[in-house]
Amino acid sequence: MQKTAGIIGLGLIGGSIGQGLKENGWRVIGSDKNESRIKAAIEMGAIDTEGSMEGTDIVFVATPVGSIVEAVKKSINEGASVVTDVGSVKGLISKEITDTHFVPGHPMAGSEQEGIAGARADLFNGAAGGST
Question: For residues 3 and 132, which has the higher predicted lDDT (pLDDT)?
Answer without folding.
Answer: 3
